Each structure stands twice: as C-alpha cells, then as structure tokens.
Description:
alpha/beta, six-stranded mixed β-sheet, 25 helices, 60% helix, K+_transporter
Amino acid sequence: xxxxxxxxxxxxxxxxxxxxxxxEEQKDDISKGMNMLSSKKLxxxxxxxxxxxxxxxTNQGLYPxxxxxxxxxxxxxxxxxxxxxxxxxxxxxxxxxFPTGIKHNDDILGVLSLIFYSLMLxxxxxYVFIVLAANDNGDGGTFALYSLLCRHAKLSLASNQQAxxxxxxxxxLDVPNRRLKRxxxxxxxxxxxxxxxxxxxxxxxxxxxxxxxDGILTPCISVLxxxxxxxxxxxxxxxxxxxxxxxxxxxxxxxxxxxxTDKIGYSFAPILTIWFLSIxxxxxxxxxxxxxxxxxxxxxxxxxxxFKRNKKDAWISLGGVILCLTEPIxxxxxxxxxxxxxxxxxxxxxxxxxxxxQSLALGCFPRVKVVHTSSKYKGQVYVPEINTIxxxxxxxxxxxxKNTLKIGNAYGIAVAFVFTITSTFLVLVMVIIxxxxxxxxxxxxxxxxxxxxxFLSSVLYKFIDGGYLPLLFALVTMTIMYLWNYGxxxxxxxxxxxxxxxxxxxxxxxxTSIHRIPGLALFYTELVQGISPIFTHYVANxxxxxxxxxxxxxxxxxxxxxxLEDRFLFKRVEPRELSIFRCIVRYxxxxxxxxxxxxxxxxxxxxxxxxxxxxxxxxxxxxxxxxSYESDDKEVSRLSTEEIAQMEVEKVDEALNVGDIVHLMxxxxxxxxxGSSFLxxxxxxxxxxxxRRSVRQVDxxxxxxxxxxxxxxxxxxx
Length: 718
C-alpha cells in the first residue's frame, strides 16, 4: 500500500477527531494519575522523616494558593530565617568602629549617619527595590542571577544546551529587543568572548564561595559577641570559658538543621520578634532620656565632617555600626541577645544550603545529598555534608580566633565581596534583560556600586588582621568547584565527540548476533545530544538487549523549577519495531530528585502517553512516518490508530510484567590523554577522580535498587 492511498486517507480522517478526543482523555488521566501519585506520597510522608520528603508534587515550585494566609506564614518564617543576621548586627560591630576610642562627640553622629545612608542605599534601594526584582522565578542569589543571564544570552560553558529547553514554560522570558542596539551589542560581545564567559563563571563561583564563608563566620561572630557581654555581669568567666560555651552553642545550632527551615523558622520567629521589639524599645528609651539630638545624624553633612576630622581612620571604620544597650535590664536583654544571635546565624546557614543546591544543578559542585525538608514550600533544603563542614569550620574559627575583632574583619570582606559581585551581575541584567535607561545605570554605578567598592577597599585594608580568612575559604571552595566543573565539562565533551550515531545504533540493535530478551531496561547517561559511547562498550561485552530499551539523560536547566508536564522529553529511535526510546529528564536547580519508585511511575505513565501521541501523529494523512506502519506489516496497517497504540503500550506492559526494571549505568574513569601537560594530568587523574570517588554516585542520588543495577566500566581519554 502506498502512502497517500485515498481509502487509507479517508479512514484516517474519520478517525482523526475520535483519536484526538482519546488523546485528550488520556492526557487528563495522566494528570489525575500524577495527582493521585503525589497525594499518595504526601499522605504516607512523615514530616519528621527527612528521607520521606524526597518526593515530587504536581505543584512543583509553586506555593499553595491560600492568599494572605500563605503570605503571612512565609513572612513570619522569614523573621526567624532571613532578618536575624541584619537585626543582630549591633551585637558585634561596635569594636570595629572606634578601636582607639571616640576622639570627638560628633564622630558618633558621623558614624550613625554613615549607617543610616548605607542601610538606605544598599539594603533598601538596592536589595528591596532592585535586586528582588531581578529574581529567577522567585529565587535570588549569585547563581540565580547567573542562570537568568544564561537564559537571555549564550553565556554558559556547558555543552548540553538544546533548542527544546526554551519550550519549557518557566524558561522562556523576554529577550533583548534588536532595536535596542546597546542591549544587542553587549549581548553579542558576551556571547562571542570565551574569556568573558570564564570570568562570569569565576565571579559566580567567587560569590558562592563568599556566601559559604559568611555561613561560617556569621555563627561565630554572632554567638561570640552575645556571649562576650556576659563578662560585664559575671566577671568570673574567663575568655576560654566563654569560648567553649560558644562552641557548645554552635554545635547545637548545626545539629538542629536537619529539622528543616520550615520548623526552624516557626520556632525562631517569636524569639527574634521579641529581640526586635526589645532593641526598638531600648532605642526609644535612650533617645528620649539621653540625647534626642541624635536625630541630627540624618544630615549627611556629619559624614563629610567625620571624614575631614578622621581621614584614614574614618575610611577604615566604614563597616561599623553602633550599639547602645541600658544595664537596668541587662539580664533579660542578655538572654534575648544570645538567643537572637543563635537565630541570626540561620539566614546564612540556610543560604549556604540553597546555593550549594544551585551549584549542583549547574555542574559546579561535587554531588552531595540534598534533602527537601518541607512538603509545602519548595526550596527549603538541608545538605548533611555541607552542614558538617560548616559546623567543623565554625568550631575551628571560634577556637582559633577566640574573639570577635578579627572575625569581624573577616566577615566584612566576605560581605563586601558579595555586595560588589551582586552589583556586577545586576548591571548586566539592567543592560541585557531590563534594557534600563543608560543614565539610570550610570547613577546606580556611581552611587551604590561605588559605595560598595569603597566598603570593599576599607575591609581589604584589614587583610592581615583576620581579613585573609574568607579569601582562604574562597580559595579552597573555588578550587573544588573549578576542578569539578572542569572535569565534568571534559567528560561531557568526550562523550559528545564519541557519541553513537542513530544509524550506528540501528545497526547494533538489528544485528542477528544481538539477542532481544524480554524486559525493560533503562540506560542512564548525562549526554543529551546522542547515545553515550558506553553503550557500544556494553554491547561488545554483553550481546543482548531488552525488548524495550529507554536511554535516560538527566539534565539540569538554568531555571529554578521545571513544571511536571515539561519534565520528560521523549523521542523514538526508528524503526519502531526496535522499541528503543530516548528520554531527557529535566530538572531546575530547586527541583527535588524524586526517589526511584516515584520516578519509575512517572516515567512509565509519560512513556505510554508519548507512544499514544506519537502513533497518532504518525498516522495523520500526509505524514511521512505513516509509511513505517504500512510498508512491512499489512495486518498492522489495517488496524486503527487506537489499536496500534494499544498494541505498543501492551508491549511495554509485557516487558514490565517479566520482572523488575533493569538499570544500566556507565562507570567511566576519566584520564588525561597522552601528551597532556603535567598540570592537566594532575587535575584530571588525581584531583578530579579523587573528588568523584569521594562524593555520592548517581545511583545513590536516585536511590536506584542495587540488585537491579549493572554498571559498565570504560576509560575516557580526555
């Protein structure tokens, strides 16, 4: 029967509307099935059992739509998680302002004026009104800004980008208008310059490293500062005793992280609310009782006079603020201050977990375990390995420095670097994405950005007095991140250069020496543009393939979340009788990697839907693929579209009924090729491979059953 036969076309037309209705019904059934699967997982989940919360929901990335109730719940949580760091800063900044004492009474007004306008410019104008607008589907941070830029310009160094990625609903955003020559010019310059791409990745890693440094220094300086105040009322306590008490508090703080941000936020928020009310009340009391004229600090002229009087010393003290507490309410305030200081550390600890999760998704950090701790709100995560490292580092810093002065110097450098890096990315967002008026960009650069650079220069002056610490942390973290990213890119490039072509795959599967055995097999690979060379290595040693074979590629997109309906991207390998499929499973950097049972059910449901839709689309009149059903099997060509689809779906069911799914996974060893430099051999053969052996493997991340897992070894010469 030839393609285009009138009788066949007429029959296809008659079936068209009926098949379309069937597909829509199946799509509804799939949606209902996903909801039921999600509901079942949520119903059996123990909110205290962190492992159980590694499941998916159909509302991935979206908060429950409960109006003001949800908003108020999140706002209340944020008091205990986000604002603690800013709200407790008066505890530890005083020693860094006037290390040699106050030389002039107006210096206090000058410093207060500096504090006021710094908070207005950086905290309020920059972060509240500008940075929060530059969010990536609700997410912020260095990696979120980098991901946002990578979607609007080809800045990523990764080789796994596909045109289909832009079809994901959360991916497609407004692109620069070609009529705006400035945005187009900057975009083109960034895309065509490999050095700039490396520099932006370097800046992203540096910003990430500094946030992790904050996560170490903030708990140390907050707890030590609060505990140091007890000497005023209990002079019998020595510095060593205070130090060890602080260490005990820090260890306890990190031990409760496994309960998750949701529970910690609700527990801490009331305490921090009391702290804010307390310091506000004390401030008002001191204002009216001692010196109402302090309101004159709103006048910026006191800043100018402060710098005229103190010159270099004023520049050095730029990072300070002043603390004023009364003694009549010492002990109640001390207790609240200690508790608030402990809570203040939570913001940077939570930020460290989140930014590691983002780094993992973009291939910039070794694989570690990420536990999603909330069934209601996405993005609340806990990383056990990072939590342990932060705890040990905090204890080490506390024991090593023993006081807040040098830790404060180190903390200032970390914060100043994060400020300036954020502004750097923000300017690019203004130019490329927002297409902001050039004059406004210049005003931002000459005010806020310049102020941040001034802060950075001031804290760098204290490099020897503890300022080297965050740079040391950054050096170690960035080395690990770069080694992993470099090895990951080299490994991916090797697979891309040596991938199995579709023609070669068909030849292998069609060979008579290759036996097709009943069952369904999943072959995992990171390569998304083809079939991994490990497949040919597997067939050469095991000349057998299962009756249904699915090549699965796990891919992370530079977006926060991928909707469930866009998660699976299927493609059939022709000819159809081979029953070989390719599937790309796409995740955002906030998406939870679901446990195996959930993943399997989603995969099978989506595979069956794809088969039905693919058969329907191929049977449309005039479709070239229609010949694949008609040229070989006359009996099949007489069947309706629904019958053919059902036949192929039954083949999948038969493969599943044979037994459990078999998992095939590559276990590649990456080595530097002959003739490589000594440095490359050192990086690849030793550093990168040591990292790969030290971290979690892919089968551990997805909790694939070991009894049904077959790993295929192969050496990559990169």
